[in-house]
Amino acid sequence: MTTWFKPIALYTDLYELTMAQGYFKEGKSEQHATFDYFYRTPPFGGGYVVFCGLATLVEILEDFRFDNDALEFLREQGFEDAFLERLKTFRFEAEVRAPAEGELIFPYAPALQVRGTLLEAQLVETLLLNLLNYQSLIATKAARMRQVAGDRVLVDFGLRRAHGFGGLHASRAAVVGGFDATSNVLAGMHYDIPLSGTQAHAWIQSFEHELDAFRAFARQYGDASVLLVDTYDTLKSGVPNAITIARELRDRGQSLRAIRLDSGDLAYLARHARAMLDEAGFPDVKIAASNNLDEHVIRSLIAEQNAPIDIFGVGTQLVTAHDDPALGGVYKLATLNGTPRIKLSDSLRKMTFPGDKQVFRIRDDQGRLYADAIALDEQTHIDRIHHPHEPHKETQVGHLEQTPLLKPVMREGRRIAELPSAFEARTYAREQLAALPAEHRRFKNPHIYKVGLSTALRDRRDDAVAQAHRRIPSSASNNQQS
């Protein structure tokens, strides 16, 4: 990691440190707290989110500290010496509970909990949100592309369009969501992702003739050659020249791997290129396509236009999550010193669920995902769930299989569970998506997945609301209602 990313403890918003100093001066910083991470609205008009970023977060939290450079900078910003002395010895020693990476997570259900001192839980908020929101967003976008691509190859081409060094995490998240490879060499090294890359138009243009460019490339890379055929004229020049190279490679006992289309009417060009390759005796040469692809374009190319494309290289639309570029995950205080805490709102949708909690994944009698129950931490089985915002709606679930999702992954600041690789998380995500009924996975008007409160948690929330209202002066309460 480049030196200007260090110290990672300063990768935060100022108000986290401002509050942390305030807690310290008020004697509250060592009080025990629980914070919940969750989101309220699925991105892309969809019905789910693929949970991603946990491995990155755990890796950073294990080494989360303030070095001398960080402390000196904070001193220059006006932070007080006594507080800086506390930060000098700070280590993240909290417990972190979360589902497996690659799990499907749904609105309002906690997807990660931090249980530790108020100081350490507050200091990691921005970092946690930054990592989980972004990687989960990209993994979800990638999963939608995998859904429509079937078993065709998906390659992440997004680094040059990514938001700075976020491209590294985007490549990893793309794999968790279902991609096969990346052009990002650093991501390939860090996350053991297969690399895929061809050539740019500059390579072709650097030679006097397109055929010379193809021939030089094939001479160097042999069986690994993928030729970009749209620099001049795809069907009159690019594909015929690629066929010439395919013949020359065959004469040397090698095979041309693929051609790539990067512009124009991809379906039209792919159909004609396929016919030309097949007629020339090269049915095994693959066709790759790139250029502003997303799940909607890929679905159209395959399902509506019958384009014979084997490999999709996806860039901008993936790594920027172009049509919904932020996941609104939040991080809210749920418990302080054993006392449940709640954030009030005029809308039930914006209220938090107080206390330490567990989330149960409920499956129907065929093993399909049916509902999530948000429950008190001490509960072990849920008989019924209540709609979080529409109190008259409830569902009986006591007869169905129930599995707790939130499991310890860190304790005393050290990992206690083995974290999966990107490809292991991809396998798990694929299994969970296969168990999610199709009506929840469709792109338009997906069915809303059931997420409900146990009766005990609903009652706790209602009690916490009543107690909070009793603490509000009557004049303030009247103003709030107005």
Automatic annotation (TrEMBL):
Database matches in Pfam families: NAPRTase, NAPRTase_C, NAPRTase_N
Nicotinate/nicotinamide phosphoribosyltransferase domain mapped to chain residues: 154-353
A GO molecular function held by the record: glycosyltransferase activity
Boundaries of every Nicotinate phosphoribosyltransferase C-terminal domain copy: 357-459
Post-translational modification (record): Transiently phosphorylated on a His residue during the reaction cycle. Phosphorylation strongly increases the affinity for substrates and increases the rate of nicotinate D-ribonucleotide production. Dephosphorylation regenerates the low-affinity form of the enzyme, leading to product release.
Catalyzed reactions: 5-phospho-alpha-D-ribose 1-diphosphate + nicotinate + ATP + H2O = nicotinate beta-D-ribonucleotide + ADP + phosphate + diphosphate
Residue intervals of the Nicotinate phosphoribosyltransferase N-terminal domain: 10-133
Pathway it works in: Cofactor biosynthesis; NAD(+) biosynthesis; nicotinate D-ribonucleotide from nicotinate: step 1/1
InterPro entries: Aldolase_TIM (IPR013785), N/Namide_PRibTrfase (IPR041525), NAPRTase_C (IPR041619), NAPRTase_N (IPR040727), Nic_PRibTrfase-Fam (IPR007229), Nic_PRibTrfase_pncB (IPR006405), Nicotinate_pribotase-like_C (IPR036068)
Function: Catalyzes the first step in the biosynthesis of NAD from nicotinic acid, the ATP-dependent synthesis of beta-nicotinate D-ribonucleotide from nicotinate and 5-phospho-D-ribose 1-phosphate.
Stated name of the protein: Nicotinate phosphoribosyltransferase
Source organism of this protein record: Lujinxingia sediminis
